Amino acid sequence: MEQFINSNKQVMNNYLFSTNMNIEKLSKSVRNVPDFPIPGIQFKDVTTLFKNPEILKELSDGLYEMYKDKGVTKVVGIESRGFIMGPLLAERLHVGFVPIRKKGKLPAETYEMSYDKEYGKDTIQIHRDALDENDVVVLHDDLLATGGTMIAAVELIKKFCPKKIYVNFLIELEDLKGRAAFDPEIEVESILKYDI
Ligand code: AMP
Questions:
Q1: Which residue, 69, 90, 96, 170, has fewest beta-carbon neighbours within 10 Å?
Q2: CA 100 / ligand 1 centre spacing (Å)
Q3: Whose CA is nearest to atom 18 of ligand 1?
Q4: Residue nearest atom 3 in ligand 1 by C-alpha distance
Q5: 178 and 157 in contact (C-beta within 8 Å)?
Q6: Helix H or strand E segment including 111
Q7: Is the CB of 156 under 6 A from ligand 1?
Q8: CATH number for the 2-194 domain, one of 3.40.630.10, 3.60.15.10, 3.40.50.720, 3.40.50.2020?
């Protein structure tokens, strides 16, 4: 049986205010799976968002509204759940999509970064020719927990010295305070905010 989260704390920020997203409806559409993949983790399953065509469109429209006036030139998505809305946003913005992948998956020359996760350790890579200093980048992933994954991704992107880096999540687990790990010049936005 699907279990839906009822307790959620939503703060309307400037980005979200400019969109027509029904935050409450979106929040209730994320499935919470207790003790996955290990005991103690409340896993936020975004597949229940994506399988609903109206919600998928609402997310696509909302993300487009958030970033359409920012001069974005590339959307970078983090494997693997950043590969769902990331390319959709890139297509809406008429810009390219760049994958950040787990170590050993990208075929050409890469930069890489290792980091600690909420559960486990990982290394991510990006192709060395993926971006350049003229790019304005939106870095996208499904969820902000401790921030370890996205901080590593930001460090990878910084190697290209882009003009600007925006960071975007569908979901933020506010109690883990991952947002505090980002430099103040990085604009971090999340659509749905949960206490764990
Ligand atoms: P972190 O690096 O701690 O911010 O973890 C974020 C990454 O781990 C994202 O790629 C998420 O997909 C995944 N993740 C971590 N915690 C959860 C969770 N509670 N529910 C779903 N995904 C999670």
A1: 69
A2: 15
A3: 43
A4: 146
A5: no
A6: strand 110-116
A7: no
A8: 3.40.50.2020
